[in-house]
Amino acid sequence: MTIAKSLSEAIQKSSPYFISGVPDSGIKDDLKDVVDIKHHIAVDEGQAVAMAVGFYTATKSVPLVYMQSDGLCNALNAITSLVIPYKIPMNIFISMRRTHPQHEVMGRMTEDIVNMLEFEALRMGNNHLTFYIYDKQRKSN
Amino acid sequence: MISREKAIEEIMDNHPDAIFVSTTGKISRELYELRIKRGEEADDFYMMGSMGHAPDIALGISFETKKEIVVLNGDGAAAMRLGSALRVDNYRQIYHYVLDNGAYDSTGGQPTCFNELRATFYMSKNKIKKVNQGCREDLGRVEVKPHEIIERVYEKIHS
Asked: Which of B125, B56, B67 is nearest to B93 (CA)?
């Protein structure tokens, strides 16, 4: 089973569940399975994250947002100004792009950024990172 | 034209049971103070940062409730995230108000580029409310901690 698919299946076991994100060609086969289920399209990664915040507010169910490493830039404002201060637990799946010139800089920086955000990062395979955010801090509240 | 505070109060009167999501800056601060003044629960989603994302939060909430949701947006915030601001048009339970004073009022009244986008918004179902710049001298801050806001809005959604 592919990583994105197994992750989305794990999320679907919670009820209700929320999955949104922006596609990446690197995981297109996985995404085929993901978009067949109840899945929310987003205009960009920032909207995916902010919609996930709304979903959590309505349900207290932990949402899943997926993106490629370049998309983390689009999501950062929502993560630093909304997800973290409002203590929203969220699973973020990031597929890594590194090889082409337009991906190279973020490919190099992504893991450092995640560490600076003090997320708990769980590495899945060589090409994917999954970050389980904030469960740790929520417990300490 | 009327003050932004007066416009917000009219919207509150028109949507007594709605979940409110308010944008960054003075709009959230005025909504909060109006709740206190009116003796109502301050259980709105006051979005302190992440400018432009208020319609997205409303959309995420709408997936899980049938209740009416009101977005109080500003013209600068709507311009900043046009895709978010126009998308919520398609969701009938969401009432998206753009309080349009043509300025970044919370940072000193600098002009926004909403002039160049206004025609697009008038074609949309977004509700544009022209309001005056400026606010009361003694406008306070939102006195609810961010994680407490989530608890209160959750309770309101499930009340």
From this structure: B67
Query: Judging by DSSP bridges, how do beta strands B127-130 and B94-100 pair with one another?
Result: parallel
Q: What does pTM read for this prediction? A: 0.94
Domain ranges of chain A: 3-140
Residue-level pLDDT at A33: 73
Gap between the Cα atoms of B36 and B43, Å rounded: 11
Nearest of A112, A115, A60, A53 to residue A85 by alpha carbon: A53
Is the ipTM, as predicted for this complex, more than 0.90? yes
Q: Do B56 and A88 touch (CB under 8 A)?
A: no
The Cα of A112 is separated from the nearest Cα of chain B by a number of Å equal to 22
More reliable by pLDDT, A44 or A132: A44
Domain residue spans in chain B?
A: 4-157
pLDDT at residue A95 tops 90:
no
- What would be the CATH architecture of the domain defined by B4-157? 3-Layer(aba) Sandwich (3.40)
- Work out the minimum CA distance from A81 to partner chain B, whole angstroms: 5
Residue predicted with more confidence, A83 or A119: A83
Task: Report the half-sphere exposure of B112 (CA within 13 A, side-chain side).
Answer: 22
CATH superfamily assigned to domain A3-140:
Thiamin diphosphate (ThDP)-binding fold, Pyr/PP domains (3.40.50.970)
**Inter-chain touch B84–A50, beta carbons under 8 Å:** yes
pLDDT for position A40: 93
> Which residues of chain B neighbour A52 with C-beta distances below 8 Å?
60
pLDDT attached to residue A139: 47
Q: What is the pLDDT of residues B105-122, one digit of tens each?
A: 989 999 999 999 999 888
CB contact (8 A) between residue B53 and residue A78? yes
